[in-house]
Task: structure prediction
Amino acid sequence: MFVPMKTILDHAVQNQYACIAACGVDMEMVRGLIAAADRKQAPLIILMGGMQMERMGNPELMIPLIKTLAAATPSPIAVCLDHGKDFAKVGYAVRNGFSSVMIDGSTLPMEQNIAITRQVVAFCHPLEVSVEGELGHVGQAATGDGRETAFYTAPEDAAAFVQATGVDCLAVAVGTAHGKYPAGYLPRLDFDRIRAIKEATGGVPLALHGSSGSGDENIRRAVAAGINKINVATDLLEASKNGVANALRSAREADYITVMQQGEFACGKLLEHWLELSGSCGRAPQIPCSSRIERLQPAFDSQARGE
Result:
């Protein structure tokens, strides 16, 4: 079932769990992701960012594909524009059928961030398109941005931002960063800050960006502290790549379809682990849906059994 992100996140807040927002840039990734959500009876948000859309995930092609796959499962499936930097990119996403958008004004002064976010909310809400904003700044892991407490979200600012904009979800900076962390580094998340932001904002859904490589225990504790949306991109892209690479190494004569399927299966298998960490497995039947389940990847079950 194709839904706005708000449908998923409001249920997550009410029941104190988190949903996975997973990067999907091509048919194989999206098939693997939605099939995993189907198997685990979990809601799912699929992310596509501007750079990803420019390089591969053309929304004119991807959104109809996602809607078709979403219609085959009762698990609620949303699609969110990730880190839309201006109103034009938001408009492009909405025009092409995204059910949700993120407007990222985190590098702007707070007043300007509020102004553009409020403009996006005013545009999207009448269309039943959900809106995520960001306050604080989730930078790049490679440059150590996640360690800069000056970038972190202040609870009092978060309360003012949510009140002024009416966003459906707020991305917060609490110690994570985008991309790959340096070898051997595990981020230190500020769980007290997450709890304080949750309380200050009156329970608005909170999003954790830069979750890849953050460690399972950090993710579990972040969910317990009040995170409701967990963005995962780098880990899933790596899993897809490694699935293809492993297929080529193990059987150089493998045909193209078999090789690409291995990337798809690897992506879906890793997502299952993230769904379990988030507490979202088995939640789909609790969220109002009218579609009946149909298996999206029957071949996966045979593959998993080694048949």
